[in-house]
Structures are given as C-alpha cells and as structure tokens.
Amino acid sequence: MTTLAATGVFRLSWLLLAFPVFGAAVLLLGGRRTDKWGHLLGVLMSLASFVYGVIAFFALLGQTGAGRSQDLHVYSWIPVNGFQANIGLLIDPLSICFVLLITGVGSLILIYSVGYMAHDSDRRRFFGYLNLFIAAMLLLVISDNYLGLYVGWEGVGLASYLLIGFWQFKPTAAVAAKKAFIANRVGDVGLSLAIMLMFAEFGTFNFPGVLDSAKSGGTGVTTALGLLLLLGACGKSAQVPLQSWLLDAMEGPTPVSALIHAATMVTAGVYLIVRSNPIFNASPTAQLAVTVVGAVTLLFGAIIGCAKDDIKKALAGSTMSQIGYMFLAAGLGPAGYVFAIAHLLAHGFFKAGLFLGAGSVMHGMDDEVNMRRYGALRKFLPITFATFGLGYLAIIGIPPFSGFFTKDGIIDAAWSKGGTDGWILAACTIVGAAITAFYMTRVMLMTWYGPKRWEQEGVLGGAGAHPAYTEPQIPHPHESGLTMTIPMILLAIGSIGAGAFLIIDERLQNFLAPVIGVPFPDHGIWSWPGIIALVLAVLGVGVAWAMYGRVAIPALAPRGSVLTRAARADLYGDAFNESVLMRPGQWLTRLSVFFDSRGVDGLVNSTAATIGGSSARLRRLQNGYVRSYALSMLIGAVLIVAGLLVVRL
Amino acid sequence: MSPASYVFLAVILFVIGAVGVLVRRNAILIFLSVELMLNSCNLAFVSFSRLRGNLDGQVVAFFVMVVAAAEVVVGLAILMAIYRARRSASVDDANLLKN
Lengths: 649, 99
What we know:
The complex is a heterodimer of chains A (649) and B (99). Chain A is 71% helix and 3% strand. With 649 residues, chain A is mainly alpha-helical. A three-stranded mixed β-sheet of chain A has the order 1-2-3. The N and C termini of chain A lie far apart (107 Å). Chain B has three helices and no strands. Classes of the chains: A mainly alpha (649), B mainly alpha (99). Chains A and B meet through helix 25 of A and helix 1 of B.
C-alpha cells in the first residue's frame, strides 16, 4: 500500500470534516437561538460535504497508480520521541466510496428529517447530533491511521447513543441508548486492544505501516489482531454475539434508524475488516472467524426478522442479516471484499429507502409500528409504496435490482471458495436469501395489502415522540410531503441501479483494486448458486404469500411455534446475556462485597475488637484507687517474701 | 521478756498499719497508718539488732526515722494543697487524673 502526499483538490479534504463539525457546533452551542434555521444549516453542511466528496471522487478518477491514495497530513497530535500520533486524512478508492455513501445518503436523510421531525420541538438538536454523527463517521473512514479511526469510531458511538436516546423522556429509549452504548463498549475494547497490539508489534498506527508489516508479521500476531478487530467490528455492526443492541436501537427516530442503524454506522465493522484486509489475508483463522460470525448472524437476523410485528424491528433484523452477508463476504478474502463493499453500498440505498418508507408510513399512521394494525396502505401512500416496493425487490435479490447483483456475488464467492466450509457458507447464504424473501414479503403484505385493519382495530401509536393512545384511534393515512418523498424516490433509484452499476463491467472491483488486492476472476452475472438462491427466494415469496397474503392476519399475534416465540424474543439474545453475563457478574460483585465486608473488614474489625475488649478488661485493674494499688503491692511483697522463704527452707 | 516478743509486736503493728492503709479513705489516717508501718519496721530492726548483738539494725532505724520525717513534711504539704483545692481529705476525691 503506497500513498502520496495530498496535492491539488485533495489538500482540502479537511473540509469534509469541517462542514459537519461547524454545523454541529453552531447548532449545539447556539441553543434555541438557532431553532428557526438550524435544520437548514444542518442540511446545507451535509450537502457541502457531499459536493466536496463528488469533486474529490472525480479528481480521484483522474489519477492513476499511487496517485489514487492521497494522504493529507493535518497535524501532529502527540509528537513524542518514539510515539508519533498524527491526524491525517486519506482519500483513496475505498474511503471515497464511504464518503459518497455517508454524505449522499446522509444528506437525503437529513432532507427527509426536515419533514419528518417538523413537529418536534427539538428538531434543531436532532440536526446538531446528525451533523456530529456525519463528522465522526467521515473521520472514521478517511483517517489514515487506526488511532484517528478509533476517534471516529467512538464519535459515531456517542452520536448513536445520543440519537437512540433522542426522546430520552421515554424510558424505553433511554434504556435502549444505554444498552447500545454498553454493547459497543465491549467491542471497542477489542479495537483498542488491537491498536495497542499494533503499536507494540509494528511501532506505528498508520495504515501503510501496519498493513505492510502485517504481510510479513508472524501468524500469531496477525491472528490476534484479526480476532480483536473482529470483536470491535462485531460490536459496531451488531453481529453475533454482540447483536442484542440493534433491535432496541429502533427506539430512536426513524431517520436515525435509516442513517445510523442501517446505512452507515453499522457497516463500519465491514469497513474496518476490508480496510485491514492484509491482516486478514495473512491469517486464515481470523478469516474463518469472520465468515462464521457472518454466516451465523445472517441466519440469526433473518430468523428474527420473520417473527417481528414491529415494522422497524423486522427491518432491523434484516439489517443484521444483510451485514452478516457483508461479513461473510469480507471473510472470504480477496474474492469477497469487493462484494462486501458492493453489497454495503447497495444496502445503504435500499435499506435506507425501506426505513424511510417505514418512517413515512408511521408518519401517516400516528406513529404506529405494529404491522398487524396496518393493511391496504398502498392506496393511501402511493409514492411510499412504490419506493418501498423497489427497495423490497432490491433486498430480496430480484434481477435487475441492485441486491441481485451484490448478493449473488457473495453467494457465488462463497461457493467458489470450495471445500466443506465453502459448501456450508454457500448453503447459509442461499438459505438466508430464501428467508430474506420470506420476511420481506411478509412485511410487504402486512403493510400494503390485505384489508384495512386500522379501520377496524385503530392504532395505538407510541413509536414517536408522543405517548401511545390509551384507546385505539382511527388514523387518517396520508402521503408525506415533498421533503420526505423526494429522498425516498432518489434512494429508490439507487436501489434499482446501484448493484448493476457497481458489478457489471467490474467497475467497483477495478476501482478498489489498489486497496483490496487482485481482482477476483469473473464468474459472470449468472451462476448456478445464484440461480438456486433466486428460485428459493421466489419460493420464500410464495410461502409468505400463502401465510400472510392468502389468509387474514389476526390483530393479536397468535402464540406461534417454538421458533416463532424464540424469534420474537430476539432468539433469547437478551436472556442469554442476562443469564450468562449479567447474573454471574452480579454474583461476582455480591461475592466480592461479601468477601470485603466479612473477610477483609471482618479480619481488621475483629483484631480491633479483640484488642479493644482485652484492654477494656485490663483497664479495670487501673481503677484509680490508691488502696487497690497498695493492696497489689502488699500482695506482691507477701508473695515475694513467701517465695524467698520457700526457696530458703 | 524475750526480744522475740518485740518482733511479734512489730508484725502486729505492721499488719494494723497495712490494713489501715488499705481500708481508710481519709488521707491523714492513711498517713498515720504508713507511720505505724514504718515504726513497726523500726521496732523490728531494733529487735533484730538486739538479737544479733550488733548495731546495724539500730543505724537503719535512724535512717528510717529521718526518711519518715522528710516524707511527713512533704506528704502533709501535699495533703494541705489537695485539701485546699478539693475541700476534702478523702483520697478518692483526688481523682483529677482519672478520665
């Protein structure tokens, strides 16, 4: 990996961070004074970053060779002898993809939020946090070293926490924010340990330094690094075993779910793995761990998505599952990196579109999220229906929509890996594709088709800032305004075309080649595993139609099978954490407290009590009466004399 | 009268003095008892001197008298001071160092 010192337009790459940081600072420090125009400033700053990103992208296309990795040294953060921590920004093919995704999708979602949050008295604060998030996320992807990446990594964690708990007056939102923060901490420990290990082994944090050393480093070090980075990635990307926070994170406003918990932040783990690809290439063990995590999570999330009645939680399960696909692809090595990134970008479009669609439905349905109270909404929200439908076709992988190209690439790459593990991974991805088709069709049918269940049942609301109704109310579903529909339309266009654009002619592969290594030999668009997956996906659609389209959907969820109940309870992820981690932890603290109060304190206190007690007894001898002292003297003298007499006689 | 009778008398006087010291509370009476004990010792010394036929015991008796005289002077002075301060001659009331 070689980089060049930044020249020309790349010398301004700090602007990418400066715009959103400025926006966040003005909005958060300016307070209520900025309420009137704050949201516009937020959108403007994000758009400004996007414009710079586009300019930098085209400038990058004009470069060749090492010129495609433009490194801008911003300043020396900690210049100490033997420890050089610099803040530097790296614009290369991989980071520019993320820059465009973050600022592009981010700007669309900010525009959407102008309409979505219009009635919220704290809209300005919301935009301040979103700008903070965009700045942190950009720092994460364009930093040229792991330390800067870590700063961004923690920054997005903070923004995620603030935004999940945006309606902090709702206890569920406050708890969900804490849960997300703590689960992320566990992963962050892994990342910080990885960075310390890098410095201890290679003496540097810079990507070129670390990654070149990793190629020649020992297997033990690269495996340890790979596994620690994977732990960090699992926390941020909600992969098993650190998956439990993502479903609860849906307590945040829907644009947050779309931007942070679907399109960008949760994919940071994939970025981390692909960016660190030489480390994983050098360690088959770490790669295997990544594929296992990916395969388990893609089925885990998909199964959860099948049973959720809450539209946002169903989509969140789907997000976990799709990121599982990306992890699996990233674990396949050079054959899979490009598909991981392609799927990530395509997913950014269609999943953000789906979430914004869900938000639009909630907007028209008094903040109701229970799909059992939806139905027949396609007539009332035609634009949302169309964009949601395109996102749906993209995610289940129907050609020629974007999911087809990117997901089939992953399935094909897993298949081509060969061996038993290749078979198992390919089987997981194919089954996952079928389940994806099932649960997404379920969401489609429950939301848009069937009878108007909201007319008979009414809605309770409660997913937004306002408390739930105590009695069901009949909503008046209506299409959202232009600020909300235009972003959805643009994202839908991305859902249609992104996959084909990125995969056909190997555009993304050739573009990313300097970062992710040798291109993978082309297998063509159609491959047998892909066709099997497509057939199974169609089958999944059919099963879902038989279960949710053909028959009426009860207003109250039926008890369901064992698997349904397990999926409804997030496959007992919380119960597992509670019984395996929380309860033993509580016992450990109780034991420590007992040992401290009874053991350590007991020893000290009993010593003191013994001394105190015996001195209290001894004190009685010193009663202060001269005659008692005289008596003891007399007795002593008599004893001595008696003793002398005994000895003499 | 054999000298041994004086020794027995000395023992009786000493015991009376010791009991007086132990049971009395009035400082003056304790003082008197102490004097009684000292003089019983003197009597014993003198008796033993007579029994042994040398003058050592009599010499010691003089020393004891001198020490007793000095002790009485100092002790009575202290007693006066305590009485003035505490309005009492009881040894139990001289308890300022206690607690």
